[in-house]
C-alpha cells in the first residue's frame, strides 16, 4: 500500500470516478442553498437532494465530489468529542460518488472494491477489509443482492456481516427516498484496539474503522410507512477523506495524517513556549490534555476558516452561534496551553496554506477571515474577564446562601425586617441558580453545591469549560453538580435537534414535487403566448379552479415572469386569456417552490382552470426598473472591491423596482470620501454605456477560472452557469435579468450606509427615475435653504450643536443643584456597627452624575457606604451604591444594591466598591433608602 498525501487521495478519488463516466462536481457551500432545514452542509448528497427527490434535473446521471462538511450543531453535533477521539471532527471532507437512476448495487460495489484494492489505485490489503449488509426486517428482506455482489468481487463470506436498520438502512426523512446500505470497514490492527485484546469484528470500534458507506436508494416511504420500489433506484456514497488518509498513511489517528500535522505544529508554535524537553514546540511532552488542545485548535481552525469564507459570521443565534462556539472553544484551549493573546487568527493562514490547492478561493478570503477571527478573539477576552467576575460572585453567593436562608427562617413574619430578609434570600438564590422559582419550598433549596444548571449557564453564555469551573469551585470549597450539568447539556442538544430537523425534510409542499419544469423565456421576451396551466394551488393544496377574487398560485409550462432568486424579486404583471385581451389574473410576484417550477402569485379576475391556455405578460416598466438596479449591484460590487479592497465579498442583496440593497464583507464604516469615490466610479461606468454581455451554459470551471467570475454567497450553481460580464469591469455568475448596456441605468445614487452585523456592511442605492426623484428633492431643498442640501446639513449641524450645548448647560445646573443639596449630607450619615452609612434621594440627575456624586460623598465620609436613589424621567428607579476601599472586605456594593433593588421591584449588581441597579416601583424608593442602614448592618453580622 503506497503512501499518499491527503490532497493526492482526494484527486485520485475524483479521477477514478471520472474514468467511470462520472461528472466531477465542485463542493457546494457549507451554508445549504435554499434548504432551511439544514444547519450546515453535512454530507455529500446535500447538494443533490432535489435531484434525488425528483425536483431537479441535471444533464448528467453520474457524479463524484469532495464535499466540505461541518457537523457541530443541531442533529449532527460532534463538537464535544473533537480532539479527544481519533476520528471526530467539526470540519471534514466527504468523498462521494452518485448515481441518479443510472447504475445500482452491482456497479457501486464493484467500483468501491476496485478503487480500494486495485494495485493501480489505493492497493489496500483485502485481508484488512470487512463489509456489512442490511440483515432485513418485517418490511424489507435481507439485502441478498448486495451479499451476492460482494461475493462476486472477492469478499469472503466470513467477512460479510449483517446489521440492523440502525446501522444499515438509510432514509432521507420520515418520508421520501430510502433503502439499505452497505459499509466498508478497515482493520487498523491490534495496536489500535480499545481494550488491547484481539477481539473479532464488530466488538471494537477503534480497531475496525468504517471508511465508506454505500447507500442504495430503492424505496419511496409514504407517510403511513408503506415502502414502494422506486422506478429508478439511485446510489449515494460517502467516504471520509480524513479516515481513508489515516489508512493509506499507515497511522492510527486522523490527526496523525498530513491533513492535520502541519496545523497542529503551527498551533504549537502559536501557543507553546519552547523548553529543553520540547525545543520544537510540538505536542506537550507527556501531556495528553495539551495534545488534545492542539488537536482541537487545528480542527476548529479548519471549521472556522471555511465557515467564515462561506459567509457565516459569529453571532448569538443560528449558524453564527455555532461558529462562535467553535471559535471560542479553540481560543479556550489556547488559553489552557498558556496563550492569552490572540492566536487563532494566525491559524487561518495556516489553513489557507494547507488547503489552497483544493480550495483556491481561500487565498482571496484569508485576509477577511483572519480579521473576523481576530475581532472575535478580542471580544472573547472581554467576555472572559466578565465571566470570571460573575463566577466569583456566584461562588460567594453559594457560600452565603445557607446563612441568608437561616436568617429568613428565623425572622418572624411580623418583624420589621422580614421582607428585607426574604428579599435577601431570593436575590442570593437568583445569583446561585440564575432563576427565581418562588414555587420552590425553602427546605428544598440546595446549599453548599454549585448547581449544574448554573455551571451550564456559564458554559453556554461565556464558554467557560466545565473542568475550569470544577477547579474554581474546589478552590472555594464547593462541589459542582456534574450530573446536573450533563443533564442540562443533553436537554440543550435535544432542543437544538428539534430546532434543526436535519437534511431529511422536504422543503416544499408535495403538490409541487411531481410537476414538470416551467420553461422560462423571460430573458428574451416580456410576453409568452399559449402557456398552459399545469397546476393551481390555494393555501398549499392543489385545486382545479381559482374563482374570481381568490388568491392562489398558478404553475405554467412556460412563462416570461422571473421568479424570486439571487436577491432579485419576482416580476409582476398579468395573465391574459386565450383571446389575448381578457385579463384572467393579476400577478403579484413569482417564486420557485422547487427547482425549475415557477409558481405565479395571483389574484384571479375571472375563473382560471387547470388546462387553460394563458398569455403571460410582464409589467415592462417594473421589470426595467428592477433590471437597472440589478445591473447596478454588479457595478457597485466591483467598485467596492476597487476602493475598499479585494476582501469585499457580497453577503446578500435585495433588488426590486424601487432600490437596491447590497450587503458586503468589510470591517469598518465606509467613509464619506470613499462613498463619493465609489459613486463616481459606478457612474463613470454608466456613462461609458458598456454593453452587458450574458454568456449561457458556461462550464463552472471555465466561468470561475478562465473568466474570473465571482460566485455569490448562498446561491446554488449547477455545472453549467450563466455569466454576466460588463466589459473588463465586472464578471459574475448570475441568473438575474439585466440591462443591455450600462447607459440604460441612467444614474446611480447612494442613499445609505450602515452596519448589518460584525464584519458586514450595507449600502443602499437608487437608479433611473428613482435617482431623478432624489435629485429633484435636493433641488427643491436648495430653493428653500441657501446652499441647498449642503446648506441644510450645515444648518442642522449648527442646530444640533446648539442643542448639545444647552443640554450640557442644563446638566451642569442639575449637578450643581445636587451638589448643593448634598453639601452637608455627610453630616447626616448614620453609624451602623461602627460604619458610616449615608442614604440620599436625588431626583433629576442622570447615572453619570450620580456616580460623580457618589465619589464626592465617599471622599467626604473618608470611610463608609453611600447609597443614592433617584426617580428617572421615564418613571423608573435608579440606585447606586459606593463603598470605600477599606470596607469592601466586610460589605460589598453589589450585594447592598441587589437587596435594595428587590424592594423597588428591580435587580442589579456590580463591583464590591461600586454597583448600580434599576427598579420599577418609585413609590417604594424612600422606604428602600430607609432600609440601607439595616442592610449594611445585616452584612456586618
From TrEMBL:
Keywords: Aminoacyl-tRNA synthetase, ATP-binding, Coiled coil, Cytoplasm, Ligase, Metal-binding, Nucleotide-binding, Protein biosynthesis, RNA-binding, tRNA-binding, Zinc. Belongs to the class-II aminoacyl-tRNA synthetase family. HAMAP family: Ala_tRNA_synth_B. Residues 4-777 form the Alanyl-transfer RNA synthetases family profile domain. Its cofactor is Zn(2+). It comes from Granulicella tundricola (strain ATCC BAA-1859 / DSM 23138 / MP5ACTX9). Binds 1 zinc ion per subunit. It is found in: Cytoplasm. It is an enzyme of class 6 (ligase). It comes from the Bacteria. Residues 789-823 form a coiled coil. It catalyses: tRNA(Ala) + L-alanine + ATP = L-alanyl-tRNA(Ala) + AMP + diphosphate. InterPro entries: aa-tRNA-synth_II/BPL/LPL, Ala-tRNA-lgiase_IIc, Ala-tRNA-ligase_IIc_anticod-bd, Ala-tRNA-synth_IIc_core, Ala-tRNA-synth_IIc_N, Ala-tRNA_ligase, Ala_tRNA_ligase_euk/bac, DHHA1_dom. SMART domains: tRNA_SAD. This is Alanine--tRNA ligase. Gene3D superfamilies: 2.40.30.130, 3.10.310.40, 3.30.54.20, Bira Bifunctional Protein, Domain 2, Threonyl-trna Synthetase, Chain A, domain 2. It holds the Pfam family tRNA_SAD. One of its GO terms (biological process) is alanyl-tRNA aminoacylation.
Amino acid at each position: 500500500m503506497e503512501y499518499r498525501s491527503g490532497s493526492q487521495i482526494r484527486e485520485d478519488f475524483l479521477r477514478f470516478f471520472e474514468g467511470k463516466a462520472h461528472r466531477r462536481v465542485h463542493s457546494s457551500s457549507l451554508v445549504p442553498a435554499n434548504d432551511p432545514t439544514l444547519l450546515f452542509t453535512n454530507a455529500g448528497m446535500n447538494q443533490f437532494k432535489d435531484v434525488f427527490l425528483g425536483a431537479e434535473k441535471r444533464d448528467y446521471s453520474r457524479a463524484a465530489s469532495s464535499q466540505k462538511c461541518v457537523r457541530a450543531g443541531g442533529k449532527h453535533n460532534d463538537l464535544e468529542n473533537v480532539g479527544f477521539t481519533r476520528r471526530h471532527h467539526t470540519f471534514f471532507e466527504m468523498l462521494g460518488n452518485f448515481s441518479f437512476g443510472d447504475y445500482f448495487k452491482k456497479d457501486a460495489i464493484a467500483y468501491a472494491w476496485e478503487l480500494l484494492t486495485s494495485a493501480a489505485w489505493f492497493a489496500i490489503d483485502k485481508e484488512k477489509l470487512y463489509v456489512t449488509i442490511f440483515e432485513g426486517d418485517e418490511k424489507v428482506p435481507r439485502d441478498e443482492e448486495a451479499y451476492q455482489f460482494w461475493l462476486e468481487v472477492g469478499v469472503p463470506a466470513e467477512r460479510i456481516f449483517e446489521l440492523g436498520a440502525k446501522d444499515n438502512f438509510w432514509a432521507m426523512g420520515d418520508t421520501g427516498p430510502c433503502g439499505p446500505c452497505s459499509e466498508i470497514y478497515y482493520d487498523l490492527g491490534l495496536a489500535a484496539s480499545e481494550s488491547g485484546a484481539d477481539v473479532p469484528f464488530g466488538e471494537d470500534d477503534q480497531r475496525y474503522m468504517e471508511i465508506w458507506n454505500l447507500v442504495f436508494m430503492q424505496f419511496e416511504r409514504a407517510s403511513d410507512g408503506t415502502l414502494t420500489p422506486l422506478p429508478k433506484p439511485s446510489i449515494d456514497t460517502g467516504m471520509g477523506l480524513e479516515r481513508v488518509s489515516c489508512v493509506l498513511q499507515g497511522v492510527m489517528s486522523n490527526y496523525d495524517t498530513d491533513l492535520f500535522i502541519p496545523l497542529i505544529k503551527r498551533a504549537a508554535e502559536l501557543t507553546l513556549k519552547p523548553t529543553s524537553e520540547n525545543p520544537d514546540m510540538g505536542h506537550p511532552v507527556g501531556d495528553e490534555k495539551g495534545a488534545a488542545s492542539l488537536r482541537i485548535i487545528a480542527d476548529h481552525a479548519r471549521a472556522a476558516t471555511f465557515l467564515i469564507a462561506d459567509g457565516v459570521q459569529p453571532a448569538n443565534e443560528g449558524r453564527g452561534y455555532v461558529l462562535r462556539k467553535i471559535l471560542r472553544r479553540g481560543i479556550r484551549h489556547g488559553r489552557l496551553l498558556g496563550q492569552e493573546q490572540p492566536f487563532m487568527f494566525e491559524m487561518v493562514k495556516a489553513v489557507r496554506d494547507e488547503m489552497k490547492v483544493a480550495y483556491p478561493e481561500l487565498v482571496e478570503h484569508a485576509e477577511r477571515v483572519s480579521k473576523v477571527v481576530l475581532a472575535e478573539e478580542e471580544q472573547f477576552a472581554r467576555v472572559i474577564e466578565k465571566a470570571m467576575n460573575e463566577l466569583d460572585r456566584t461562588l460567594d453567593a453559594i457560600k452565603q446562601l445557607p446563612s441568608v436562608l437561616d436568617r429568613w427562617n428565623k425572622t418572624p413574619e411580623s418583624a420589621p425586617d422580614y421582607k428585607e430578609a426574604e428579599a435577601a434570600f431570593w436575590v442570593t438564590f437568583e445569583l446561585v441558580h440564575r432563576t427565581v422559582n418562588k414555587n420552590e419550598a425553602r427546605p428544598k433549596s440546595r446549599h453548599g453545591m454549585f448547581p449544574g444548571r448554573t455551571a451550564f449557564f456559564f458554559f453556554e453564555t461565556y464558554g467557560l469549560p466545565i473542568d475550569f469551573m470544577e477547579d474554581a469551585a474546589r478552590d472555594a470549597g464547593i462541589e459542582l453538580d456534574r450530573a446536573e450539568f450533563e443533564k442540562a447539556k443533553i436537554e440543550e442538544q435535544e432542543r437544538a435537534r428539534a430546532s434543526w430537523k436535519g437534511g431529511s425534510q422536504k422543503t416544499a409542499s408535495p403538490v409541487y414535487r411531481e410537476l414538470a419544469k416551467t420553461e422560462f423565456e423571460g430573458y428574451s421576451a416580456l410576453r409568452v403566448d399559449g402557456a398552459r396551466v399545469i397546476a393551481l394551488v390555494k393555501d398549499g393544496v392543489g385545486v382545479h379552479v381559482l374563482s374570481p377574487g381568490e388568491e392562489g398560485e398558478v404553475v405554467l409550462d412556460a412563462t416570461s415572469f422571473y421568479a424570486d432568486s439571487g436577491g432579485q424579486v419576482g416580476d409582476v404583471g398579468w395573465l391574459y386569456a386565450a383571446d389575448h385581451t381578457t385579463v384572467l389574473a393579476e400577478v403579484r410576484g413569482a417564486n420557485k417552490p422547487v427547482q425549475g417550477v415557477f409558481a405565479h402569485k395571483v389574484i384571479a379576475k375571472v375563473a382560471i382552470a387547470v388546462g387553460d391556455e394563458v398569455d403571460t405578460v410582464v409589467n415592462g416598466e417594473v421589470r426595467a426598473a428592477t433590471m437597472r438596479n440589478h445591473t447596478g449591484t454588479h457595478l457597485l460590487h466591483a467598485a467596492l472591491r476597487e476602493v475598499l479592497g479585494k476582501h469585499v465579498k457580497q453577503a446578500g442583496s435585495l433588488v426590486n423596482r424601487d432600490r437596491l440593497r447590497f450587503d458586503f464583507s468589510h470591517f469598518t464604516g465606509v467613509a464619506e470620501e470613499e462613498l463619493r469615490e465609489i459613486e463616481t466610479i459606478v457612474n463613470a461606468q454608466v456613462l461609458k454605456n458598456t454593453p452587458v454581455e450574458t454568456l449561457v451554459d458556461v462550464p463552472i470551471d471555465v466561468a470561475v477560472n478562465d473568466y474570473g467570475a465571482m460566485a455569490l454567497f448562498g446561491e446554488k450553481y449547477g455545472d453549467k452557469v450563466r455569466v454576466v460580464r460588463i466589459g473588463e469591469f465586472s464578471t459574475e455568475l448570475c441568473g438575474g435579468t439585466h440591462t443591455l448596456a450600462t447607459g440604460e441605468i441612467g444614474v446611480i445614487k447612494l442613499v445609505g450606509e450602515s452596519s448589518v452585523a460584525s464584519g458586514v456592511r450595507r449600502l443602499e442605492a437608487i437608479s433611473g427615475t428613482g435617482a431623478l426623484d432624489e435629485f429633484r428633492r435636493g433641488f427643491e431643498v436648495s430653493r428653500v435653504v441657501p446652499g441647498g442640501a449642503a446648506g441644510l446639513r450645515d444648518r442642522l449641524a449648527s442646530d444640533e450643536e446648539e442643542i448639545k450645548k444647552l443640554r450640557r448647560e442644563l446638566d451642569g445646573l442639575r449637578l450643581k443643584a445636587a451638589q448643593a443639596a448634598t453639601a452637608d449630607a455627610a453630616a447626616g450619615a448614620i453609624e451602623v456597627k461602627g460604619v458610616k452609612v449615608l442614604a440620599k434621594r436625588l431626583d433629576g440627575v442622570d447615572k453619570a452624575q450620580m456616580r460623580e456624586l457618589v465619589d464626592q460623598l465617599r471622599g467626604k465620609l473618608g470611610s463608609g457606604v453611600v447609597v443614592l436613589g433617584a426617580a428617572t424621567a421615564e418613571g423608573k428607579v435608579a440606585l447606586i451604591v459606593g463603598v470605600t476601599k477599606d470596607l469592601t472586605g466586610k460589605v460589598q456594593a453589589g450585594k447592598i444594591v441587589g437587596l435594595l433593588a428587590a424592594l423597588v421591584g428591580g435587580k442589579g449588581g456590580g463591583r464590591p466598591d461600586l454597583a448600580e441597579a434599576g427598579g420599577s416601583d418609585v413609590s417604594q424608593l424612600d422606604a428602600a433608602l430607609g432600609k440601607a442602614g439595616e442592610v449594611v448592618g445585616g452584612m456586618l453580622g
